[in-house]
Design a protein that fits this description.
alpha/beta, Rossmann fold, 5-stranded parallel sheet, two-stranded antiparallel ribbon, 8 helices, binds 3'-phosphate-adenosine-5'-phosphate sulfate, binds adenosine-5'-diphosphate
Length: 218
Amino acid sequence: MSAAPTNPTYGEVTTQGASTNIAWHHTSVDRAARALQRGHRSAILWFTGLSGSGKSTLANAVNSALFEQGLSCYVLDGDNIRHGLCKDLGFSDAAREENIRRIGEVSKLFLDAGVVVLTAFVSPFKADRDKARALVDPGDFIEIHCAADLEVCEGRDTKGLYAKARAGEIKEFTGISSPYEAPEQPELRVPTGSQNLEESVAVVLSYLAAQGVIPQGS
Ligand SMILES: Nc1ncnc2c1ncn2[C@@H]1O[C@H](COP(=O)(O)OS(=O)(=O)O)[C@@H](OP(=O)(O)O)[C@H]1O
Ligand SMILES: Nc1ncnc2c1ncn2[C@@H]1O[C@H](COP(=O)(O)OP(=O)(O)O)[C@@H](O)[C@H]1O
């Protein structure tokens, strides 16, 4: 019998497809039961935008507001996730695709766990965001475009990365040497380049209330 093929990153792999010989286990506590116990539904709030557009700041502020209201919520932030789950990935198109695939799957688990999960990733490619959206039911994936022009983000340059990218010290930097495909029809487009944080938080909270994710009037 010949040995199963191996992948340098993931070890032994099967030629039969990942789901062969693996069954799905259903748990008796399901998403609906969790929503009933917690008093709110779960959702994925998918923040996307250029570096410096305000994804982390806005996701963190919205998360704090939800937490203060007693909701179960959690932020998955690109910088943090790349220190652990995705530390093997760089910034080529393929690496970003794999990054967003993993985050889509992790977000789906949070959704099932009854948590409002807020993801803050550049997620520059429409196809990758659409694949993450397709993992869950319509209405569960709320795409929030942090809309700030490149000039604004570069002017902020909160981490000094744009200066490095312009100097050629960082390759494939989004907006400079790698593309950003802005969402055409996001659930929400927040002008984070021109309004202040409090205004942006209010826009998101009012959308969530209108969608029944959080109680009305919050
Ligand atoms: N080449 C390149 N392009 C874009 N961003 C870069 C790059 N190299 C490092 N960084 C820093 O990594 C953060 C983006 O990671 P993400 O996981 O969100 O990227 S992606 O969704 O896979 O495109 C991003 O964080 P934010 O500034 O918070 O967006 C950067 O700080
Ligand atoms: N409306 C807004 N929403 C979010 N951030 C804002 C807003 N207005 C100004 N900012 C500022 O823009 C910067 C955004 O940085 P950051 O949140 O790290 O962006 P990103 O996570 O997209 O890289 C912060 O310094 C933040 O204070």
